């Protein structure tokens, strides 16, 4: 029988301290609560999880509620994904959806599923960074436009 209380870990096998991927900091522009108007209405709130590896988005849109966890996907034994990925959990519908995020310059792109998906959101931040105007685009011409205005930082 092994006495786990006296087991030691070789320094070479000791876990290393990991740090969040610096590209996650591009999502700092989203931090705060946003009022969403247009063809969808409600609020979304973004906040960093402890440690900075994940960003939480709390969603209340059109009578539905949910949470999205955004970060680099890392499967057991593998390296983190190069893309910023997310999983959305819809409390009202019980659905789970996956997205890929990117902020480049003043443009926020969110693809449903993988980067380059035909279902995507594209929004532009105003100069102050407190208004995001954009639209979801769906295959076949569907989608909706919104304007999100930051109400708290």
Can you walk through the features of this model?
Strands 1-2-3-4-5-6-7-8-9-10 form a ten-stranded antiparallel β-barrel. It has strands at residues 32-38, 42-48, 54-61, 64-71, 84-90, 96-104, 107-112, 120-125, 131-137, 143-152. The protein has one domain: Beta Barrel (Lipocalin). It is built from no helices and ten strands. The protein is globular and about 45 Å long. With 153 residues, the chain is an all-beta fold. The termini are far apart. Residues 1-16 have low confidence and may be disordered.
Please state roughly what percent of the residues sit in beta strands, choosing from under 5%, 5-15%, 15-25%, 25-35%, 35-45% or over 45%. Answer: over 45%
Give the C-level CATH assignment. Mainly Beta
Q: What's the N-to-C terminus distance?
A: 55 Å
Biggest sheet features: 10 strands, antiparallel, barrel
Overall strand count = 10
Mean pLDDT: 90
